Amino acid sequence: MLQIKRNRIGLNAILLASTEAEEENKLYRQLRESGYIFCSGKVGSMDTHKIVAAIETAAKRNEVVDGSLYREVHALYHSSIEAVQGMTRGQAQIGELLRTVGLRFAVLRGKPFQNPEEGEWIAVALYGTIGAPIKGFEHETVGLGINHI
Amino acid sequence: MLQIKRNRIGLNAILLASTEAEEENKLYRQLRESGYIFCSGKVGSMDTHKIVAAIETAAKRNEVVDGSLYREVHALYHSSIEAVQGMTRGQAQIGELLRTVGLRFAVLRGKPFQNPEEGEWIAVALYGTIGAPIKGFEHETVGLGINHI
Amino acid sequence: MLQIKRNRIGLNAILLASTEAEEENKLYRQLRESGYIFCSGKVGSMDTHKIVAAIETAAKRNEVVDGSLYREVHALYHSSIEAVQGMTRGQAQIGELLRTVGLRFAVLRGKPFQNPEEGEWIAVALYGTIGAPIKGFEHETVGLGINHI
Amino acid sequence: MLQIKRNRIGLNAILLASTEAEEENKLYRQLRESGYIFCSGKVGSMDTHKIVAAIETAAKRNEVVDGSLYREVHALYHSSIEAVQGMTRGQAQIGELLRTVGLRFAVLRGKPFQNPEEGEWIAVALYGTIGAPIKGFEHETVGLGINHI
Amino acid sequence: MLQIKRNRIGLNAILLASTEAEEENKLYRQLRESGYIFCSGKVGSMDTHKIVAAIETAAKRNEVVDGSLYREVHALYHSSIEAVQGMTRGQAQIGELLRTVGLRFAVLRGKPFQNPEEGEWIAVALYGTIGAPIKGFEHETVGLGINHI
Amino acid sequence: MLQIKRNRIGLNAILLASTEAEEENKLYRQLRESGYIFCSGKVGSMDTHKIVAAIETAAKRNEVVDGSLYREVHALYHSSIEAVQGMTRGQAQIGELLRTVGLRFAVLRGKPFQNPEEGEWIAVALYGTIGAPIKGFEHETVGLGINHI
Ligand SMILES: [Mg+2]
Ligand SMILES: [Mg+2]
Ligand SMILES: [Mg+2]
Ligand SMILES: [Mg+2]
Ligand SMILES: [Mg+2]
Ligand SMILES: [Mg+2]
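Output (structure tokens, whole complex):
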């Protein structure tokens, strides 16, 4: 297991999005000890909005963001869209371009900067496969979005 | 140290792009044992073309691609551009949008599919920071491009 | 009430798209006195094409464009698409990116240039809110497209 | 009839996509004599994915690509997406932007480079009309994507 | 003079960016009375980064943002980029596409939401002309970006 | 020689941009007999704006557009940008993405619609190669933009 770096919120989000089940517990402990609030999940879809919705639902339910405050939802939203743009590389479209994705996502919230006034930031990572709607006809893809919250 | 998964060319490229110096040797050995040809390097720039050039130069010099064949250079090129698109999330521009990047890149070549006829594929990963041209005013960013070669 | 500038077709379109009901009559009079043909309306949607259609329908019905001539419909169409691009800032997608809009639109046709040979131009303005499909979880957005007609 | 240039895979694809029925037989013969494997067809749609699917189905059925190999399907896919990007000029959306297309497509596979090690390449061309969903309210459009295969 | 609406941070930013010198004082007073911190300025350029820099410099100098905190600079930066995307409609490029702009910009910081926990937001507006590098060969353009800060 | 179709302004522009010197005279005669005003030329560059400028300069010098009227220059400009978008497929950048182009361009002005009220339209076509700045490491590319004028 990589010893995580406390201040690398983005890389830690990618690790969480790409870690296999058996290694998750160790990673969870390290993230908690590093002061992160986080959640992760799976989503497979041909619709971009379902990926954004899955991330938002998980982040609200796990209290990574306060779903009653638009400023928190707005911060998460733009992180998610940036992650989707990285994952789709050019056009934020999946099924409309005849491709499908199978992804794990992770959302981390924490304080990656030394100056305490820099406050909290949020990272959304996507890791999985993108490709034709035929099993195995797909390659990996990654996306990461980071925002102040 | 994460035990790498042999068939995850993209995740392995991200690992190589994000691994600290002290852990590199172990990762190198695992990648070699898994049959990958690879290289990595650093590039900081406000010009997209310098990032693409740094990747291409390293990949040719380390014989990850055959620089005398356009089809290999073409495969690498489109992987690099997809990685840049993921890293920039929306507009493949750096200095023109008044931002700068400090990146590590990795190029992996190998056979990630079980069917031997699927042949070789190439992955380009970028990991580092993007932000204002002021030290510390930056956050992490990631990009990944994968292509058949 | 701002005294409108006759030759600012774009700013006048934004004014018309953002003016409250009580001030509309004064603005209408000023626009008519300045020689503009115009219309305005409301549209709320998660589909980009419904916004483009609402603009086109209103502009035809109010004879801002001649719906029997493709060159006029083409001029209006590209103005509308440019306004949508400004309103969406990056990806011309609404519901697919899990957002919704509540907009007022305005279409102005007139002669904003002193040289009479520059002929007629058309401006499409959008003003309203964009955000999550939750009431109040939204911020303002603006778009403007201008074309010769 | 233009005498085709053997090494211009892209221009030949555009010729095939834009040739009228009566001239097709002469073109077919020339393309075969030049060593190309190819197919062509028609597609009209407001959905980008239906265009990509029509190309893929025709290319598999006519054995221009081996549909059992992802690397071949991947090469064709990226050629098709590049052709769609050229045809749509900016946003790879059709109906969502309230426009429709009537296209002929062509897929050519061959060896356009003198060096035999450059191997096979694939070209996808689109030619037809794009415009409002009203007959005659449309203008021509072209797209071309080329990839190593 | 339009009586400004206190909670319309975006429209107020556009007003400030498009108001003529003689009307500025009245608008300044209204904005101050509404609790906004703001600044405005002019920039003409063929380089996107000079526009972003002009906005950032003015916002720091006028203490609309705290230039020593990355989270504030990051919030302003993304607002500026969204405004640039709206102003350029599709490609965030000016001189590279052989066009030039003459713009007024405005930055407003305030509390546009009734719920005090929604805190402060920032709006960047651009208004001016875009066109060929020939005097008078240009039309109006607008851009607006809004972010939590 | 293909007998050109009088009403296919876009395809005729592509033909003119892709025709070899020895066949040009025949094509010129056909285009003139079909009532087109046109010009063509060559441009090789890593800068998008040089391509747009080469087209504009040729079109003005050959009186395909009236360079003293912004509405004509505006119509040509948007046709050129659409052709560039088709030629670059996704990002209207050349050298910044470490690629270079060698193109022939053509500009045609005529009346492609039967209804005389549809008036004049303009087509800009680009045909040539795009690739690495190494001779032979390039493939073909095409772009087409059409506008009312
Ligand atoms: Mg950022
Ligand atoms: Mg791919
Ligand atoms: Mg324009
Ligand atoms: Mg290519
Ligand atoms: Mg927003
Ligand atoms: Mg058009």
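The pocket of magnesium ion (ligand 5) is lined by residues A 74, 78; C 139 (CB under 6 Å).
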